[in-house]
TrEMBL record:
Compartmental location: Mitochondrion outer membrane
Source species: Westerdykella ornata
Membrane topology of the entry: Multi-pass membrane protein
Pfam families reported for this sequence: ThiF (PF00899)
Protein name as annotated: THIF-type NAD/FAD binding fold domain-containing protein
GO cellular component, one term: mitochondrial outer membrane
Primary location recorded for the protein, binned into one broad class: mitochondrion
Domain named THIF-type NAD/FAD binding fold: residues: 105-360
GO biological process: cyclic threonylcarbamoyladenosine biosynthetic process
């Protein structure tokens, strides 16, 4: 060893290397030592700034009722006046005539009985983000006087592109209290029960419990987490609590593709697909109304943003989430879409609670079905023409695919006028046409004098029987069907004549 050292020190190059290494160690030690001294100094300074017990002017910082430091989010004068007015209104110290005047437009629409049902309703909103906040705001503005809000999250800057009422001053405060604080300035008589909590199966009994003895009239699911969503929907279905669920508004941009229907029909929505699969394992296949979009992804459209590679390199991706099982990737959201979803949800709740008549259209993405119905109608007209002795070759009908869609969806609400079924539908003449039902005055052209008001919606089996006995036979519709069906057809035909002007 000593011989190696003597050889190394005798070499000039080795001496330079050794000197550099020793210098690096000394410099590194000096830097680390200086950092340690600086750290100790800062710790000592921080400790010195902590007052001893008993010193004067050491009143602890109070938190506001919204969970924020009072000196940071101190309520403004307007907030204080609004809170005082809301407290008085909830005690009954608020003129009922003023409330009715504020709700005047709803009153003339829903009538006194409907508005009274709405004012006495108790609704629970689970999830107070983009969808839930708009639903809550619409319900409060419409007269619902008892609202329970459940959400564990706080308002962030990125919430402001879609939240109904949040402002910059609300960033960092719980969403449930943000909504309450803002809506108290609009409908001070509303009773809010705010639960800054995560909904889960284990807490469902408490979170969905009655409010002052009143069971919930409706529950709104505006959750974007699968576990919580499934737990809520399963609980409501099992306990027969009316519920409506909002499916995914993220990555959506086409408002014409939004529908309200049973969860079993929401086949084009990825969030709904996962929810349906989990619910089916729990024995729930249908019976839950949902708001969903049939919009499909495509080139250039927004998608769930992937995690950067460096995040995967850190280890378990699941540990990156704020809470266990919550997604950690960013979901692109166009701010208008959650608002539309939320307003659709609120609209459904209002109609259901008040008993206002409503019947939703099924999904309109059925072009292939409309083409098939149009072809079947063409074939029926040709068969009738041959029965009357006309040459049916080249026969045209003055009905388009758009006309078919309008009749099926708008006039007959996607159901057979005979049985109410919504599968294997077709259009067929209601009454036997006259002898001059074909126009062949133009050389080379033959058209049937068919009008949209002549057609009714039936299943294929019903239409085959109707064609045989009425259109090609000698029976009248009145002889084949009972009076209730005949009156319904007459009503639908009158509606079509009335709405034809607006098409």
């Amino acid at each position: 060893m000593s011989s190696w050292i003597s050889r190394a020190t005798s070499s000039h190059r080795a001496q330079l290397i050794t000197t550099a290494i020793v210098s690096g160690v000394v410099v590194g030690g000096a830097i680390l030592g200086a950092q340690e001294v600086r750290r100790q100094y800062r710790v000592a300074k921080l400790k010195d700034s902590i007052p001893e017990p008993g010193e004067e002017d050491q009143t602890p910082t109070r938190l506001t009722e919204f969970g924020a430091a009072s000196q940071v989010f101190a309520p403004s004068k307007e907030d204080e006046r609004s809170m005082e007015l809301a407290a008085r209104a909830r005690r009954g110290d608020y003129d009922d005539d003023l409330i009715l005047e504020q709700l005047a437009r709803n009153r003339v629409f829903l009538k006194d009985d409907g508005l009274e049902k709405l004012r006495s309703a108790f609704v629970i909103v689970v999830g107070c983000g983009g969808v839930g906040s708009h639903a809550t705001a619409a319900l409060a503005r419409s007269g619902v006087s008892k609202l329970r809000l459940i959400d564990f999250d706080q308002v962030t800057l990125s919430s402001l592109n879609r939240h109904a009422v949040a402002t910059l001053a609300d960033v960092g405060t719980p969403k449930v209290h943000c909504i309450r604080r803002r809506l108290e300035q609009i409908t001070p008589w509303t009773h809010f029960d705010c639960r800054n909590e995560l909904f889960s199966e284990s807490t469902a009994d408490l979170q969905l419990a009655p409010m002052n003895g009143q069971a919930p009239d409706f529950v709104i699911d505006a959750i974007d987490n699968i576990d919580s969503k499934v737990a809520l929907l399963h609980y409501c279905h099992k306990n027969k609590i009316p519920v409506i669920s909002s499916m995914g508004a993220g990555c959506k941009s086409d408002p014409t593709k939004i529908f309200i229907g049973d969860i079993s029909n929401s086949t084009d929505d990825p969030l709904s697909k996962s929810t349906r699969r989990r619910l089916r394992l729990l024995g729930v296949k249908d019976g839950i109304p949902v708001v969903y979009s049939t919009e499909k992804p495509g080139p250039g459209k927004a998608e769930l943003l992937p995690l950067p590679e460096e995040e995967f390199a850190k280890g378990s991706v699941g540990e990156l989430g704020v809470l266990p099982d919550f997604r950690v990737r960013i979901l692109p959201v166009l701010g208008t879409m959650p608002a539309i979803f939320g307003l659709c949800v609120a609209n459904h709740v209002i109609l259901e609670i008040t008993g206002y008549p409503h019947q939703y259209l099924p999904s309109k993405s059925r072009d292939a079905m409309y083409n098939g119905i149009l072809g079947a109608l063409q074939g029926s007209e040709e068969r009738i023409a041959r029965t009357r002795g006309f040459d049916s070759q080249g026969l045209k009908i003055p009905i388009t695919q758009d006309d078919v869609g309008y009749l099926i969806e708008e006039v007959y609400n996607g159901r057979s006028v005979i049985s109410g079924l919504f599968t294997r539908l077709c259009l067929v003449r209601w009454e036997r046409p006259g002898e001059d039902f074909i126009d062949n005055r133009t050389p080379g052209q033959k058209n049937t004098l068919l009008q949209m008001k002549d057609l009714v919606c039936m299943t294929k089996e019903e239409a085959a029987k109707h064609e045989k006995e009425v259109l090609k036979g000698d029976k009248s519709p009145e002889a084949l069907y009972d009076a209730k069906i005949v009156d319904l057809v007459k009503l639908k035909m009158k509606e079509e004549e009335k709405f034809e002007r607006f098409r």
